[in-house]
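Q: Structure for this?
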Amino acid sequence: MPRPDHNGMIDGYSSVQAIRRLDGKTPRPKPPDGELSAVATSAGVSTEPAVGRPVNVAHTALPTRHDLICYACNYRFMVTGRLDKVLCPKCKTQLETGDKHIDGTWSGTIQTVGRVFINSGAVVSSARIVALDIRVAGMCRSTRLEPTRHLELDSGAQVELDKLSKLKIVILESASLCLDEPLRCRTLEVFGELQAEARPSEQAVLHPASTFRGTLHSPRLIVYEGAALKAYLHISPPRAAAVPVTVGNPPPEVGEPPVDAAILQECDAPPAVELPPVDLATSEGP
Ligand SMILES: [Zn+2]
């Protein structure tokens, strides 16, 4: 039917009915304008059902979005849908996408934008692994672990701690780790239990229900409510005078002022510059 406000044009309803005629189907009588608008909005935000018709609620499944980092050039990009064949939009490398699981004794090279799992009991030697995330619950010897996002450590993980200084380390919720050598890394996130001398160069984050014991040297510390912390803390921003803060062990003397006050007293520069950025989240998780 030509639209009364546009000479020579037909409306959407008439065009659908014309297609039904071509398919040999009987065109449906056009409902009154009010009912048509109610049907059109029933799958949207309107909760008013059309008179005399069942309401069909539409569900739209959005395709999965993948946040990928090219292992050839470190370019970060987003891919929507299935990960079958992925071409890096920057360096045009055809990227491997699958997840890999390693069991038993293994050596070799893996490159993927997926994830790699070194399972409990596995022994990896003389290997190079490049992946988005690498989860380790086994042993790695003479192995280059190159995650473009996180290196995740679980119980039983044995890695060469002197090779992790540029990596973002995650201690998994199921992990209970005691490290006998200093852990130098870029960032440290603890969800489980860790006892170590940790030296992240950027920041440490203790998530709810995590436990950290030992010594922590970091420019920045974030402790979420529910985390347990019993350690010597050396929290100082880069290019600022180191201000050791001791909490927990040894216990503070009776009458000793609170930690913040102690820091202010020891600082010569204005407190806004020298105060270590210790973030204490109070209510929200990560
Ligand atoms: Zn690339």
